[in-house]
Design a protein that fits this description.
By secondary structure, the chain is mainly beta. The protein has 7 helices and 27 strands.
Length: 419
């Protein structure tokens, strides 16, 4: 690399034929019952959605407060609100509105309209605490007509439904504009995708990398204005062939589509890393290339940290300034905070060393440690702490210090609240 910044069921019948002296007899064993379907668990998230009906084979129910549902592995999964069907998907651990149609993305009219519909049905009108469809509305919805979510006139299509909800819940339901729904959905998808990833690359050059995805990122110097960007990727690459480290500027590189595709941008040598994030955890179809030289190859990697119980997800960068960018003194940190303030996570050096971290969040300060490394971080959970503005701007995140067995340095990163 040149320099540049089961489900299978069988019904079995056995016919056993025996011959005696003058008597023939035959016996048959009774058919075996089909095996029970394999049932798995998942979550529907557009913010977590409570009150959606779901059906998969013989399994059905209503989503829980965290969007939880059950599905039969190998069977299709249908989501609806009463008689209004939202879409049919293949069961998975995490489903969002972009999964409801082929080629779904945050820019799809169908997807935006589903999000607008769900936001309108939220019983308290506050999407930051999840979306909840009241049991009364769920019952009434059994009598609603089907909705064409591909329509350009969703307000007209939902006129009767909105009137029903208003009368039933004694409130004024608000159907948000498409742009509001898109922004809401992209915020959800970027938080689900955010975190730290690490792996290796090969081809015309070989080495390791660390990549982190920010739900939101503030960088006026890079982006040219004061507005935070959503779904920003940043990468550090270590070429073991050349014993060189390459960095890249942040880039708004996350695509809000069904494939969760991303691009890293150009590292300081001119290369670009692109791929997809399967199940929000594993990189697939990873390709890197350098347009100027024609060098190329592949890469693989996966999420580090990412506890399912997390309420907040944090990802950032640590560095020992005395060494500049280095294999042992530079890397990423990924942390997860649960409802009780317990913190778990990992630090990953650019050279690939991983250290598990554990600690607590107390009065806005995160303290974590592991294997001789300790971090003390000031946590700004909503971006309102002005003392962190120089590093974070108006976005949620953390700043602080790292102390290792032989090195020490600073830490800065972003965070988001998972629903």
């Amino acid at each position: 690399m040149e320099h540049f910044s089961y489900r299978t069921c069988l019904l079995l019948g056995c016919l056993l034929v025996g011959c005696g002296d003058d008597n023939n007899s035959s016996t048959s064993s009774p058919p075996q019952s089909p095996s029970a379907p394999e049932v798995a668990q998942g979550r529907f998230v557009d913010a977590a959605v409570q009150g959606l009906s779901f059906r998969s084979g013989d399994t059905s129910g209503v989503t829980t407060a965290d969007g939880g549902f059950s599905y039969e592995v190998g069977q299709s999964l249908v989501f609806s609100v009463g008689a209004v069907e939202l879409g049919t998907v293949t069961g998975a651990s995490l489903i969002t509105p972009v999964d409801l149609i082929d080629g779904g993305s945050s820019s799809s009219v169908y997807v935006q309209n589903v999000v607008r519909f769900l936001l309108m049905l939220d019983s308290d009108g506050d999407s930051t605490n999840g979306l909840s469809i009241s049991t009364e509305t769920q019952s009434m919805a059994e009598n609603w007509e089907a909705v064409d979510f591909a329509t350009a006139d969703l307000a007209g299509a939902l006129d009767t439904i909105i009137s029903d909800v208003a009368a039933l819940e004694n409130r004024t339901p608000v159907l948000p504009e498409a742009a509001v729904a898109r922004s809401h959905l992209e915020g959800t998808l970027s938080c689900l995708s955010s975190g730290v990833f690490a792996g290796s690359y090969s081809g015309d050059d070989n080495g390791t990398y660390v990549l982190w995805i920010h739900s939101q990122f503030y960088d006026p110097l890079t982006f040219g204005d004061m507005a935070p960007r959503t779904g920003v990727t940043t990468v550090l690459v270590y070429s073991s062939d050349e014993n060189e480290i390459y960095g890249m500027p942040p880039r708004q590189g996350l695509s809000f589509n069904r494939e969760r595709s991303f691009v890293s941008g150009e590292v300081s040598s001119g290369a670009e890393f692109s791929g997809e994030i399967a199940n929000y955890n594993t990189f697939t179809n990873g390709q890197w290339s350098i347009g100027i030289t024609g060098e190329s190859g592949t890469f693989s990697g996966a999420r580090r940290a990412g506890a399912e119980s997390a309420v907040y997800r944090l990802s950032g960068f640590f560095n020992a300034p005395s060494l500049g960018l280095s294999v042992d003194g530079s890397g990423v940190i990924g942390l997860d905070i649960d409802t009780d303030g317990n913190v778990t996570g990992v630090m990953v050096t650019l050279g690939g060393e991983e250290v598990a971290l554990n600690g607590t969040l107390v009065e806005g300060v995160i303290t974590v440690s592991g294997s001789g490394n300790s971090f003390e971080l000031s946590f700004d959970r909503d971006g309102t702490d002005a003392s962190n503005d120089d590093a974070l701007g108006p976005v949620a995140g953390f700043v602080g210090t790292w102390t290792g067995t032989a090195l020490s340095g600073s830490v800065v990163g972003t965070s988001c609240k998972l629903n």
